[in-house]
Amino acid sequence: MSPIQNIVIIGNGIAGATAALEIRKRIEASITLISDETEFPYARTALMYIFMGQVSLPHTYLYPTDVWKEKNINLLKSRVIGLDRAAKTITLTDGRELSYDQLILATGSLSILPDCEGIDLPGVCALYHLEDLNKIEHQLLSNVKSAVIVGGGLIGVELAEMLIVRGIKVSFLVKETSYWANALPEEESQMVSRHLAERGITIIPNEEMSAILGDQHATGILCKSGKTFSCDFVGITIGVKPNVSLFSETGLNINRGILTNSFLRTNDDHIYAIGDCAELSEPAENRKSIEAVWYTAKKMGEVAAANICGEKMVYEQGVWYNSAKFFDLEYQVYGYVPNAIEPPLKSHYLTYANGQKSTRFVFHEEGHVVGILAMGARLRHGVCEAWIKQKTPLNEVMEHFDKANFDPEFTPIPFKNLKAQSRGSNTRKARNLVSFIFPFLRTRP
Amino acid sequence: MNHRSIALTDQVHPTSHTRLHFIWLALFYLGLAMQFFSLFDLIFLPGEWALGLSFILIISGILGYTLTIEHRKKITGQPLYTLQGNIRQKKWSAWLLALFLTTFYVLLYLRPDLLGLGKNGASNSGLIGLYDGLSYWIKGNPASEWFVYGTMYTLAITCLGIRVIFKFRHNRYQVYRTLSIIFFQLIFAFLLPEILQSFNKPYVDLKNFWPLNYYFFFDWNIDQLLASGQFGFFVLGWGTLGFLVLTPLFTYYFGKRWYCSWVCGCGGLAETAGDEFRHLSNKSKKAWKQEKYLIYSILVLVIVMTLLILISRMTGQLTNISQTLAHWYGLIIGAMFSGIIGVGFYPLLGGRVWCRFGCPMAAYLGLLQKMKSRFRISTNGGQCISCGNCSTYCEMGIDVKSYAQQGKDIVRASCVGCGICSAVCPRGVLKLENINQ
Q1: DSSP label at A6?
Q2: Are residues A104 and A251 in the same domain?
Q3: Number of domains composing chain A
């Protein structure tokens, strides 16, 4: 392989920025990191905290600003408008062309905006880009009193928190019967819904938006059922899609995202795709081909960097992990926890602290744990991951559950009591015993 | 693109004050004004009444205001901390507060007579006179400037500590820690020494170990202790045991935090009164470097000074140089650094400036923590989302995020284990713990 002179990375999110630094750890080539969003790579996950005034943009920079100069990585604030694979060049919005030996596409996602009437009205906003904060800020100047958020996912709840802090009344419009029911099992979904209701949020279930009402400014929404809900602000958080339209004519294989092999290489040997914009041709069992979350993007950045530098590193999806926060309620999931648990999978669900916290163990009929979902409790990543990877039996997991506790010191450990009870017995017996001796540990089948 | 409008904080929004807030605030300012006007003997009330009324106003003002604000923040879902507001952004009100505090410290250390201290047996007047009644009640003597300062200090830690407890009422670590701070300040730093004095015993703060208590081995202190019989011997023994045995032992099991965040009054004030100024600490590498040079130099200085004094005590040699060193250390480090800069500059540099750059005890504890301790802040695998909340609110200027996002545990000499990084982390990635090895 001829020595690599020029590496260009499009997109300075966590995937692109990680790739740049990981490449620099290995080789001396010139690295250019292009973004039109910010001068320095920042944490998109902190958008809500910037808006709420808890941190400012510089606080969210992934690394101190001098790191980039120190590591000799060129940061370029510009927009890429063209890719010529034959000439191995990209075109920037000012007409400049950059040539590359290896190109990494880390263009991230775009918010999905439904193609409906009124979507362009002022007072309608998504939340993904830094610029979205500006937009929302600007729109809130026009005396917004109430908002409807369409789509109840993780971004939706962040937007809700941002609006509530500004004293705005928030309603969620969700397709499902309760909040995020397409991802959370029913009990957890209900728990989050209750938590949101305590914050004064109304959840409008089983409704889909068909149009946004208003002439000059959004004044409400119309649902497919014919119902209308009035509001001064409409938040659209129905999901994201890979930001790949730029490459549709370039001959790269694109399905929803840019298709990659297990080395994260596209059908062009000189082009890799990582992060939200990449789609795995062969995802692992029970895993999606596009996993648009922070942790996967970071890992992909590391893998692509290694491969570009000549190491053969396969991107392994590993044990799934994600976390979020619904106002004060923390959420962590490890492994496979589908919203509907069907044979051969079973689940064991425990609530405690008066129903404010819960833990669910999803296990295979044969006995081993395949997933753990915690609400309001913090679990130790390494321990949970090892249990799932090693197909540890449920009994053993329950017995040693205090090892997975990651709550702050002095927080009562709810499962300590379970330890003795679950030893050598089946789970039903344990459950009955526990709920008999410790009525505050209400368990449900 | 204009980042200013979003990234920063030109807009202040709705921790909007209700009328109730202004009433509480008015009470507080009224109480403070009474203290201020007493400086010029303009309070036309009997001393005890004036002080009592002023305290009631100040305490109810602080508690009423902060608790209603915190309660409202909870209802409206405000974040635990914010960068917004004039006083948190080093604007005019922050400078005004800093000026006010530093002036107070300068007067306290250099011109207590201007605060009303009666010289050469004259009776107190002004601000210090205001505290005479309380002082007589507690220990049967007129107030000194240090009694006034101690009372104010304790009041600040107690009232603002209650606020912190209320704010973090769902976080047991913060609750227990703050209760401990209040307890040690109220009992060990304030009441016990005053009561001891009323029994003709020396004024000692039993939790204030050498080298923070730099004068522990000074001639006058040792003489005074030796003169007070059994109790004096106990204090000498306890103090020596404290820095020689207890400090390394506790630091091994719990880290530096057992002292800096659970016991110490300097840290206590920073954690309570300085709570809103955490974000001001400098997070740059340059500041880290300065911190290391400065704090270890001061540790060396205090060791050299103490050795010289002990040598001069035993041999009669080097008396001049040890006395001079002690004098200047007391003035520059003991008074100016810890007081004027350490507390006076809260609104400009953040709360733990003294703890981070100056305190020789922190240096000693830090070395122990770095070299031999079970304590660390564990990072939960690769779960960090790099949002920057932890680093922003670290009072000691540690760039916590730079460790967390690499999945590394945090073992830093300067970490005082206050637990705020863990409390503000939106993903629960950080856990303070004492690892069993």
Answers
A1: E
A2: yes
A3: 3
Q: Domain-by-domain residue ranges, chain B?
A: 14-78+115-200, 86-110+203-373
Which has the closest alpha carbon to A273: A243, A311, A230, A231?
Answer: A243
Indicate the pairing of strand A240-242 with strand A271-273: unpaired
Rounded-to-10 torsion of CA B427, B430, B435, B437: 90
d(CA B281, CA B393): 8
Question: What whole-number distance in Å separates Cα of residue B408 and Cα of residue A303?
Answer: 20
Q: Is residue A426 part of a domain?
A: yes
What sign results for the dihedral spanned by CA atoms B70, B76, B78, B83? negative
Alpha-carbon span A241 to B211, nearest angstrom? 60
Under 8 Å CB-to-CB from A269, ≥6 apart: which residues? none
Chain B residues near residue A49 by CB distance under 8 angstroms:
79, 387-389, 426
**Does A198 reside within a domain?**
yes
Amino acid at B234: F
Look at residue A418 and tell me whether its pLDDT is greater than 60: no
What is the rounded distance in angstroms from the CA atom of residue B194 to the CA atom of residue B180? 20
Residue A1 lies in a domain: no
Which A-chain residues 33-92 have CB contacts (< 8 A) with chain B?
38, 43, 45-46, 49-64
d(CA B63, CA B331): 35
A323 vs A429, more confident: A323
Reduced to 3 states, what is the DSSP secondary structure of residue A135?
helix
Query: Is-contact B179 B165, C-beta < 8 A?
Result: yes
For residue A302, give its domain range.
6-110+241-308
Nearest-by-CA chain A residue for B383:
A295
Helix B132-139 × helix B47-75 angle, to 10°: 100
The residues, ordered by sequence, that sit 6+ positions from A61 with a Cβ below 8 Å of its Cβ are A40, A41, A42, A43, B388
pLDDT digits (tens, 9 = 90+) for B268-296: 999 999 999 999 999 999 999 999 999 99
In 3D, which of A222, A218, A214 has the Cα closest to residue A235? A218
- Residues 6+ positions from A323 with CB-CB distance below 8 Å: A330, A331, A332, A333, B383, B427, B428
| 3-state secondary structure at position A356 | coil
DSSP state of A211: E
Total Cβ atoms within 10 A of residue B176:
14
| Residue B34 pLDDT > 70 | yes
Find out whether A29 and A23 touch, Cβ atoms under 8 Å.
yes
Same domain as A159, residue A83: no
CA distance A357 to A192: 10
Q: Is the pLDDT of residue A428 over 90?
A: no
The answer to whether A14 and A62 are in contact (CB under 8 A) is yes
Among B78, B381, B382, the residue with its CB nearest the CB of A165 is: B78
Strand A89-92 relative to strand A443-444: parallel, antiparallel, unpaired? unpaired
Rounded to whole angstroms, the Cα distance separating B417 from B260 reads 8
DSSP state of B275: G
pLDDT single digits (tens) A46-68: 999 999 999 999 999 999 999 99
**Statement to judge: residues A73 and A139 lie in one domain:** no
Please choose, from the candidates A35, A37, A52, the residue with its C-alpha nearest in 3D space to the C-alpha of residue A136.
A52
Q: What is the mean pLDDT of residues A215-243?
A: 94
Among candidates A64, A295, A409 on the partner chain, residue whose Cβ is nearest the Cβ of B173: A409
Beta bridge partners of B416: none
Instruction: Specify whether the CB–CB gap between A174 and A205 falls below 8 A.
Output: yes
> Judged by CB atoms within 8 Å, which residues 359-398 of A form the interface with B?
378, 380-382, 385
Q: A256, A287, A308: which is the final residue of a domain? A: A308
User: What ipTM was estimated for this complex?
Assistant: 0.89
The verdict on A325 and A423 lying in the same domain is yes
Q: Is residue A118 part of a domain?
A: no
Interface membership of B422 toward A (CB under 8 Å): yes
Concatenated DSSP letters of A230-278: E-SEEEE-S-EEE--GGGTTTT--BSSSEEE-TTSB-SSTTEEE-GGGE
